[in-house]
């Protein structure tokens, strides 16, 4: 294993004006990295960055909606302009909804928002990050999933659980990427962490059994979540890995093995793996040309 030195590296973080993202940004800055933060909470994000920059230029902030390509590109371009490139992407922006979702009104916009923010921000953020990192010779992407991304969860959390399962599945799709462009993709699955996010679980009207469940559930310390992020960033053997951040510490979540069968691992799958790296390298070169011309 070689340890990535964070000193002088540059990280882009989505949704880091507060909460878990802010705590990860604090840890990166403390280890000598520069950070570029995109969020919707401009006052908080700018104040955070001003604090990091109190003695020297270490950080930048931009209003950036993590669900929109134009905003994501602007975030990465700011990192290029200020610090010369991007080595680390923390795709952390996320939302949760109040607990009466299932029996709420049919609401196309509202009901699609969970997937829009929690899933699309990760898919789009990964696409932009890979181009920036490939040009620099490599990098690491860590997304924030959740324990709800691995296990069935409360009835009230169904859309959130679906969105975080998607983030875990997305992370586990990049086994070939290190061979294509030296980019590693990992995710962290925290259990409940005491942040502002939890306030959105309350529907503001009645105390309900789900509120009571959340109130009585143990919490993961934010420092445990940060430690999981730093491990996945620094340790270059971590590729496609899912780390659980639990109230009693960090654990690796191994991929399920029960489905394995010779019927779904025939020679043509091995052939795909063998030939796809060269094919993907050619596709990446085309994508970089397109990106440069845009
Ligand atoms: N707090 C928990 O218990 C917990 C547990 C597991 C996973 N998570 C995940 O951790 C991540 C961070 O959550 P948190 O607990 O720090 O919550 P938080 O609400 O404190 O922070 C979320 C941040 O994301 C930002 N954000 C939301 N939508 C955005 C968008 N479209 N574009 C840019 N920024 C956006 C918010 O403004 C905020 O700064 C989320 O993905 C969440 O799902 C949280």
From TrEMBL:
Query: SUPFAM superfamilies in the record, alphabetically?
Result: NAD(P)-binding Rossmann-fold domains
UniProt keywords (A-Z) are: Oxidoreductase
The family database entries (InterPro entries) matched by this protein are listed as: NAD(P)-bd_dom_sf (IPR036291), SDR_fam (IPR002347)
Gene3D superfamilies according to UniProt: NAD(P)-binding Rossmann-like Domain
A cellular component term, taken from the record's GO annotations: cytoplasm
Q: Name the gene behind this protein.
A: ABSGL_04791.1 scaffold 5911
Superkingdom of origin: Eukaryota
Pfam families (alphabetical): adh_short
This protein's name: NAD(P)-binding protein
According to the UniProt entry, its GO molecular function terms are: oxidoreductase activity, acting on the CH-OH group of donors, NAD or NADP as acceptor
Q: Which family does it belong to?
A: Belongs to the short-chain dehydrogenases/reductases (SDR) family.
